């Protein structure tokens, strides 16, 4: 795939990086009006999808380094979007849950994300999107 003749755009890794940048920037612009970073949206979705999630598990899912994740979660706690709860089964563990305000924010943000998802599907087509999704999941594994 990557050839000297094609330049940087001939490399799959560059195409992936360029696509990620475009998609991330588009979503970032839309979420900015809600006062939410893309990473904060991913955190809210992960918390919503997995009850009693720990910081360690969350870091794996949202692809953030633990120190960065901690700072962002601290800000979300201060903003009233997320709450920390001590585990009922093991007091050494702290779980994250969305507050009522966090759930409302997640629902509003989800509308933007779903609209972007629909636009992406329209751009590449359902079959290509399915193949791309499978290929990206294979690369990430």
CATH superfamily: Winged helix-like DNA-binding domain superfamily/Winged helix DNA-binding domain
- What percent strand? 5-15%
Spatial shape: globular
Chain-averaged pLDDT: 90
Portion in helices: 55-70%
What distance lies between the first and last C-alpha atoms, to the nearest angstrom? 21 Å
Q: Give the oligomeric state.
A: single chain
Query: Whole-number radius of gyration?
Result: 18 Å
CATH architecture: Orthogonal Bundle
Taking pLDDT < 50 over at least 5 consecutive residues as the criterion, the unreliable ranges are none
- Give the strand order, joined by hyphens, for the main sheet: 1-2
Q: Give the number of domains.
A: 1
Question: What is the CATH fold-level name?
Answer: Arc Repressor Mutant, subunit A
Structural class: mainly alpha
Q: CATH class, anyone?
A: Mainly Alpha
Number of contiguous helices: 6
One letter per element, helices H and strands E, the order comes to HHHHEEHH
How many distinct beta strands?
2
Largest sheet: 2 strands, antiparallel
Pfam family, one: MarR_2
GO molecular function: DNA binding; DNA-binding transcription factor activity
Domain HTH marR-type: 9-141
Protein name: DNA-binding transcriptional regulator, MarR family
Please provide a written account of the structure.
This protein is mainly α and 141 residues long. The protein has a single domain (37-140), classed as Winged helix-like DNA-binding domain superfamily/Winged helix DNA-binding domain (Arc Repressor Mutant, subunit A, Orthogonal Bundle). It contains six helices and two strands; from the N terminus they run H-H-H-H-E-E-H-H. The protein has helices spanning 12-32, 38-49, 55-62, 66-78, 100-124, 126-140, and strands at 82-86, 94-98. The protein has a two-stranded antiparallel sheet. Helix 2 packs across helix 5 (100-124). The two termini are 21 Å apart.
């Amino acid at each position: 795939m990557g050839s000297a003749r094609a330049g940087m755009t001939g490399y799959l890794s560059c195409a992936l990086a360029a696509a990620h940048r475009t998609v991330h920037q588009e979503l970032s612009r839309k979420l900015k009006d809600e006062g939410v970073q893309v990473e904060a949206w991913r955190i809210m979705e992960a918390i919503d999808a997995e009850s009693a999630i720990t910081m360690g598990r969350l870091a794996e899912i949202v692809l953030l380094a633990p120190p960065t994740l901690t700072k962002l979660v601290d800000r979300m706690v201060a903003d009233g979007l997320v709450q920390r709860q001590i585990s009922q089964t093991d007091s050494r563990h702290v779980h994250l849950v969305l507050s009522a305000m966090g759930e409302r924010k997640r629902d509003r943000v989800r509308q933007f994300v779903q609209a972007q998802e629909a636009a992406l599907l329209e751009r590449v087509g359902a079959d290509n999107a399915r193949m791309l999704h499978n290929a990206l999941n294979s690369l990430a594994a």
